[in-house]
Amino acid sequence: PSLMTHRRQKTSAKHGKLLSCACGKCVHKSITPMYLCPIDTSRDIKTVQLPSTGHVEAYTVQKLIAPEEFLNDIPFAFVVVKMDDGTLVSGMIMDIAGDRDLPPGTKVKHAPSYKSVYLFEKA
To answer: Rounded to whole angstroms, what are the CA distances from 109 to 26, 28, 42, 80, 83?
Structure first.
């Protein structure tokens, strides 16, 4: 199928491929499945593969509490990664205890995982 679904996206990520929707007209990309481009309202939406590397744009370190699925992973960082093509992707990086562990602009790569979020590691 040409349309991206959450299931297809998560399955692909577990196998090392980050998928995104992309507008065929203006090339706007979104990791959220879309059927209509929010920029130019085009319906020419395709599924594309994102680069596997990028750099950290923003993050918050989780030290005390976390959703049940991640309790054994504390500490970690919730991150916003700007992929090498400019697409923003959110996810997490394990074993980050504080700001010194993750300087701004840190280069990262996607790490295939069974987790329900995208997992990144330092490149």
So the answer is: 26, 22, 31, 12, 9
